[in-house]
Amino acid sequence: MAFGEQPAYLRVASDLRKKIVNGSLPPHTRLPSQARIREEYGVSDTVALEARKVLMAEGLVEGRSGSGTYVRERPRPRRIARSGYRPAHGPVTPFRQEQADGDARGTWESGSERERAPAPVAARLGIAAGDPVMRTRYVFREGGEPVMLSTSWEPLALTGRTPVMLPEEGPLGGCGVVERMAAIDVVVDNVVEEVGARPGLAEELLALGGVPGHVVMVVERTFFASGRAVETADVVVPADRFRVAYHLPVR
Q1: Max CA separation in the chain (angstroms)
Q2: I need a labelling partner for 183 at 20 to 30 A (CA). Which of 42, 55, 66, 81 fits?
């Protein structure tokens, strides 16, 4: 193979991708079989299989048990607006910062439980691995369809034995991190977000209705008060359904 030349399986995948994008292989069309790919492109079974794996990993095709591999319907991505902290007005949801533009029609489910902080979470919170935290998991739905997941952690050294220990229960349940922390005299003054993408975990894809190989975006958000982390969360959304749009003021 000459320098800079693509491996055979990527060349095959590229050609099939073009056919999917230009409509030659429209949604719900069965992808050519492995044998047909082998014959049409003059490649081995291994190359044909790897090319199909590439398209599946990109979310362009999906396998249907006992039927074959089909071109997926490509949803039009919706925007998730990120514009920093906004004080709540009217009904509050834990996803008011994560909802799509102008959309507050969704519903959510949540559940909280104590756990020992895993090492990555502890590092984000600035506490020792194994320290007690309150973990809250959310499933956000729109029209009954699961569209977003969130998991948050708060150090119980801060919120334990206070009225805000359970984020979705008590007098300030559902009020959001800033309002809840203010109730215990903790002033949140900074929020840091890191956005990344990775293959969805099996349980995430099961909850979101995805298939193995689908990519998810993960927004790692941490609230700080005078340099101390008071809450950190992972917001998980399907990468093929959403785009994250940041609206940042110029000062």
Answers
A1: 70
A2: 81
Cβ–Cβ contacts within 10 Å for residue 11, how many? 15
Tokens of 234: 């992972």
Residues 58 and 92 in one domain: no
Give the pairing type, strands 132-142 and 145-155.
antiparallel
CA distance 208 to 235: 12
In a domain, 156, yes or no: yes
| 233 and 129 together in one domain | yes
Query: pLDDT of 57-68, one tens digit each?
Result: 787 888 887 788
Neighbours of 146 (CB within 10 A): 17
Q: In terms of residue numbers, what domain contains 67?
A: 8-71
Residue 84 domain-assigned? yes
**Cα radius of gyration (the chain):** 22
> Which segments in the chain show pLDDT lower than 70?
1-4, 80-105, 211-213, 251
* Domains identified in the chain, total number: 2
Considering the domain architecture, whether residues 106 and 157 belong to the same structural domain is answered as yes
